[in-house]
Structures are given as structure tokens and as C-alpha cells.
Amino acid sequence: MTEKRRRRLPRQVREQQIIDVAVRVFSKRGYHAASVDEIAELAGISKPMVYLYLESKEGLFIACLRREAERLVAAFQGAAQGVVTPELRLRAGLRAFFSFVSEHRDGWVVLHRHAAELSEAIAAEAAQARRAVMAEVTDLVRAGIAESGGPARLGDEDAEFVAHTIVGAADSLTDWMAEHPAESPDGMTRRLMNMIWVGMRNVLDGETWTPPPPPPPS
Amino acid sequence: MTEKRRRRLPRQVREQQIIDVAVRVFSKRGYHAASVDEIAELAGISKPMVYLYLESKEGLFIACLRREAERLVAAFQGAAQGVVTPELRLRAGLRAFFSFVSEHRDGWVVLHRHAAELSEAIAAEAAQARRAVMAEVTDLVRAGIAESGGPARLGDEDAEFVAHTIVGAADSLTDWMAEHPAESPDGMTRRLMNMIWVGMRNVLDGETWTPPPPPPPS
Amino acid sequence: MTEKRRRRLPRQVREQQIIDVAVRVFSKRGYHAASVDEIAELAGISKPMVYLYLESKEGLFIACLRREAERLVAAFQGAAQGVVTPELRLRAGLRAFFSFVSEHRDGWVVLHRHAAELSEAIAAEAAQARRAVMAEVTDLVRAGIAESGGPARLGDEDAEFVAHTIVGAADSLTDWMAEHPAESPDGMTRRLMNMIWVGMRNVLDGETWTPPPPPPPS
Amino acid sequence: MTEKRRRRLPRQVREQQIIDVAVRVFSKRGYHAASVDEIAELAGISKPMVYLYLESKEGLFIACLRREAERLVAAFQGAAQGVVTPELRLRAGLRAFFSFVSEHRDGWVVLHRHAAELSEAIAAEAAQARRAVMAEVTDLVRAGIAESGGPARLGDEDAEFVAHTIVGAADSLTDWMAEHPAESPDGMTRRLMNMIWVGMRNVLDGETWTPPPPPPPS
DNA sequence: TATGAATGAGCGTTCATTCAT
DNA sequence: CATGAATGAACGCTCATTCAT
């Protein structure tokens, strides 16, 4: 028998093991298609342990949500640490995001791509987790423009609009990144900064794009 | 029997009725949490009819996927019809997208936000549906820059990068839009154009954003 | 294969079959120890049918409770039909009870002997079923004494006390009866009437038993 | 650690503590719905202790059964101690019963109202416990009638019939008593003696109640 | 003496799917 | 064209019981 003898582990360790596995499985299958059986088996324990420590499938999923949200927020905050110019702070944030997704793709999927299939109870928790992430970005944006001499009248609306644009773009680009494995988080960041930095300034400065005049008939 | 006798309807009509309901239900519940029972009941027919016409739950979902993808692609194509300048074509495409989501939110959700919970068979179909949409946008982008005197050497990579950015931003902004019901598709489009048009030109022209020099020590 | 081909039966018939079996199983095992699996198997159908028709294990048990309570109350009422003197009405009621228990022992067990293990939801239903039976007896008692020239001041309390005595005695005697199979419902009734008729008159007439004086010391 | 450290207690004490709790829990929930987890927690010890001392859930229940039966039998015997006339001995026994139920309702429930849900092994034990109680009452009845000049030919059958009547009535009256909290064991006893004493004499003397003649037609 | 860690087995429930009419 | 009747298979969850310390 090559089977590993299950060693008795203290609760905290087992709990993290379970959550580690659960994030992977939830990410791969989605909430409903994931089965507690599979999670338990991959974690090398029996089902009742999962229930003993995490209460229910819902509880397990929420634990995953919370941990991954905390990790991502921590990544943001760590990245901005000590960076002074707003431009560079945004860059650092984006780089942190792309690094996080590179290294914790499952975590990001669990956090961001399960809205449709969740029970009301979980949906609330998920919304809050996503709001926490979005808030970090919004802060980055708002602080950025404020410090860089932007208009004081910057509204919440505009900042949130920009944040949604950036997060959505970044999220979508994780797919692109998956198809271009050579691309590093640094490269992604440079590309995306290039694409949005100027536009962001436009929006936050209140400049408005207007349709060009129709070309003169030849 | 006061109950209304269902009239016997030709197959095509019934099929569309079923798909209409199914899109709503799949959108609200997600693929796994949606039950064929509920769909049949809301469609006012018995379960075996669903299987007679759509083969299986998977078949039903795929039918939904295809129809909504077709509708969205058609919306893009209709919007670009007769519009000459690339800038305006992009604008028209975005406006079509936001209109589609405003009016067919369920369709968009089914198309775009169920990646995680799908069986392999469906996932392939879904990926293709999304690729079809992404291809439309990529074409818009590529054509745009080509006509507007952009570099001939424009790589597929860059165009796809930009397309991912735009689609991701637009997708994410549907959430923002849902929280700001006063905003019209036209308004959304102007805001987003403002944010990305210049950056897109930068990227496609090969200009690169570089980190600013560190501020001089005080 | 001697296995009987399951015939397709209309809902009402199947429902009664299921309840028939369920009463037997609940009676033998008690609510918690009874398994829906066993009930389904003995009924010759699959588990989902039970849930389709009876909603849940609780629903199934409540259906049993209701049907048996109705049957017993009907037996009481049928027995009293056309009997004029109160004494004979009580006798008829008791005879009906003993007949019911002889022929539907399981029904009586389900009705009367499961108080301890029921969920709050079911306990309420069970209490009501038992109250319905007790009410029949109380009426019998009250009507009896009233017509036979008993005191007008007969209180609800006394009538219920007597009813409890009679029902409790009769219930307990079903055990005795089970150990004396030769005894007929008629015989049981005569024995029990003999035992309680006079005492009942005493109680309802307000006569009170008093401890006899201590025997004179020798 | 503000938590009180459980003191190590000698086996006998712990055992009684566990049984105390178990009687309460079994009474409230019924045998199957009661969980060893709950009992252990309420007893303030860990589950393995329960198994160490009582072997199994069955063993625990049987221990409860035995202790409560012993207590009730002791109560009967203590009550009859030194009472000479049979009438008063019966009265004393009934009073002891009602007192016991007033003070140990849980014990009585465990003893008497769980027939339906017990495993064969336990059912036998429970039947024996109930028989022990019934035997006490039967003795009371038999002794009573014998001493008071009743017929020598008194059969076991009759005595047991009477005992069943009395025990069943008394049991059922515990419900009535629960709804009339003002009633004391003494009051219950007087009421019940009033109701059954004469009838009991009738039965044991061999007198038979006969249906009255039909009323003359008017 | 005492317990935290762990599990095999089973139960209530649901769901996609099919059969017979 | 249309459906009421029926089920195999799986899933979430719990429980009595034991092991290792």
C-alpha cells in the first residue's frame, strides 16, 4: 500500500488544507457542480471533517471567498506600500493583480466569476468580497488623480466608472494572458497602462470625447 | 375544466418559447442550479416536450448559447452597417453592445458569465460563442486602425489585446450600469470611448507608456 | 424473474398504497427509525415517487396521522349513529375503539404513541389528531351524563378527566388485549364498562370517594 | 483560560451525571433523535467518556430505563410500607405514581412512551421494565381484593385487566395533569380512586355490567 | 482519567431522463 | 403532438463509534 497514512493534524492546519483544495475545485467546477465528496477526497480526509470544520458547503465556499479576497487586498496594499507617485501606485496595483492571477488563478475565478449560480446568502458575501477589491482600485484611482493635480470635483461616479473599466479590462486580459504564456505580469501591466492611463486622465479631468465630424463627401 | 387547453403549436414556435424561458432561468440560476422542471413549467409544457425538441439539458443550454451569440453578433453587424469612419464604427459597436445588454441582460449573462460551471462539452461551445463576439470586436479594432492610417504591421496580438481590454471593460461596466439606471447606452458609450480611444491609438501605433522618472529628492 | 412488473397506477391509488405501507412501517419502527427507503420498497415503487406525492418524510407522516385520525373518528361517529341512551352510546363508542385497534393496530400506534420523537411541526399535528379523538369521547361522556339526568353543573374539567381516564384505560388495555387474543371487542367493552360506568357516574354526580376510617386498634 | 477545568471525578459519580442528562435528552427527543453528542456536551464531558462508561447508545438508554424503573418501583414500595388496608394501599400507590410523574416526568416518558422506536434489544428491556411496574400495581390490586374479603377464585386475568386499566388511566391522566398545574398528586389520586374503586370491586367480585333494557316505546 | 481528531455507513432529498399511453 | 407516471444515480449532511495521544 503506497497509501499515505493520514496523520492527525491540528484543526488549523487541516482547515487550511481543506480550503486550499476547495478553492481549486470550486474554481474548476463552479459552486453547484463541485461536490463535497471530491473536495474531501482530494484533501485526503473524509467528508465529515469538512462539515466539522466548515459547517456546510456554503460555509466552505464563503471561507474560500474570504481568504482569497483577503489575499488579493493584501497584495494590493503591499504593492502600493512606499510608492509615492499616483501613476506608479496604479502600476504597482495592476502588477500585483496580474501577479496574483498568475499565481492564484483559481482564487480569482472563485472571487470573480460565480455570480450567476450562487444562493442569495452566498451572493451577498461574494458581492462584498468583490466590493472590497473594487474599493482598493477605486482608491488607487481617486488618490492618483487627486495627487496629480486633478480636479477637486472628482465625483465618486467617475472614479467608480474608471475602476470598473480597469478591473474589467484586467479581468478579461487574464484570459488573453492565459493564451500568451510568455507575457509576464510586468509586460501586461505596461501594455495596460499604455492603454488606459491617458484615457483615465481624460475622464477624470472631465474632458469628453466627441464624435468626429462626418468626413466631407468626395 | 376551466383550465386553458394548450393549443398545439408547430415545432419551431414551441422551440423558441422554450429557449426564451430557458435563457431567463439559466441566467437567474446558473446552469446547474437551473432545473428542467422549472423551465418546462414556466414554458407551460411538460418535460418530455423539452427533451423531444432539445435533446437534453446540455442541448438546451447550447441552443440558448447559440441564439444569444447570434443575436449579439447580428447587433454588432447591424450597427456597423453603413458607418464609414473607424472611430464611429467602434462607437456604433459599443452602443450596440450596451443596448443589447440593457435589453437582453439574461442573454449576456448566459453568454459570458457561466464559464466555471460548465461541462467540458458545453464549455467548448461557450468558448466558441465568446470567440465569435470577440472576433467582431477585434475586426472593428483592426479595421479601425488600418483605415485611419495606422501601421500596416499591426499584429494580431495587439488587436486582440485591445479587444480584450474593451470587451472586459464593457462587460464590467454592465455592472456599473446596473447601479446607475439613469445612464443610457449612448452615455455609456461616450464615457467608454473617452476612456479608451486615445489609449487604443497609442497601443496600436506602437507607442509605449514608460514609467515616469522618479521625482527629484527634495 | 418472478418480479411483478410495476403497473402504472393513477396518483390517488398509489398515494393510498404508500400511506398504507407507511402506517405499517412508522408503527413498527417509529418516526425516526423508519426509513423512506424501506417504505418505498415495501410499496413496490422508487423513492422519488414518495417525494413526488407526499412532499417529504414529514408530509408522509402527517398524511398517515390524518387518515388514521379520520378513520377512528368516523368509527366513533358511525357507532353512535342511532343509539339513543347515553350508556349504550358509550358502549358503542368503546366497542368501536376496540374494533378499530383490533383491525388497525398500526394506525392506533401511529396516532397515539409517538409523542416523544416528533419534530415540533409534526407534534402539533399529532396533538391535534389526538385532540380530535379525545373530543369525541368527551362528547360521549358529557352527552351521556346530561341525558341521564346528571347535574347541569357538569364542568368541562370533570368530563375531560373522565375522558382521559377512559381513553388511557382503553389504550393500555389494547396491550392486554394483544396478550389475550381470545378476547373480542365486545368482551373488552363489557369488561371495561363494568369497571368504569359506576365510577364515572360518581365523578360526574360530584360524589367523592373518601379514605375509610382507620381500622380500630385491636 | 478562564474556562473551568473539569475535575476528575470517580466513575460512579460521572456515570450518574451522564444518566441524569441522558434521561432528560431521551425524554425530550426520543431515542433515535437524541444524539450522543448532545448528551456528552450537556454532561460537560467528551464523547469517548460516554462510551467508556456506558458502552454504547443502547447501553446508555438501558441504564436510563433501569434506573427510572427502579426508582418508580421503590416509590411504590415505599408508599405501601406500613399501610394496612388494601384500599389505602392502592391510594398510596397511586399517589406515589402521580408524585413520581410530577417530579420525574422525563423518567416516566423514557419508561413508558418510547415503545415504537426501539431496537429489538432495547424493546425487550423496556418491556421488562414496564412489566416490573405493572407487577407492582397488579400485586396491589390482588392483595387488596384478597384481604378485603374478595373471592378466592380471583384470576390473574382479572387482576391484570384491572391493573392495565388503572395504569393506563393514570398514564393518560398525566397529560391531563400537565394541563391543570393546580392539581396536586393528592387531588389526582382522590379523583381517580373515586372513579375506579367501585368498578374495580365489581370486576374483581365477578359482577357484570349488562346493557340496560331498551327504553319503552312512547 | 480524558479528549481532539477522524471515519464508515446511511438517510432525506433532488434531478435529469425515460416509458407507456 | 402531448403527458402523467416512474426511476437510477448522486449529493448534502449527520451520527454512532473509534483511534492516538
TrEMBL record, chains A, B, C, D:
Keywords: DNA-binding, Transcription, Transcription regulation. PROSITE patterns: HTH_TETR_2 (PS50977). The keyword Acetylation does not apply. SUPFAM superfamilies: Homeodomain-like (SSF46689), Tetracyclin repressor-like, C-terminal domain (SSF48498). Gene3D superfamilies: Tetracycline Repressor, domain 2 (1.10.357.10). InterPro entries: DesT_TetR_C, Homeodomain-like_sf, HTH-type_TetR-like_transc_reg, HTH_TetR, Tet_transcr_reg_TetR-rel_C_sf. Residues 35-54 bind DNA. It holds the Pfam family TetR_C_46. Residues 12-72 form the HTH tetR-type domain. This is TetR/AcrR family transcriptional regulator. It comes from Streptomyces synnematoformans.
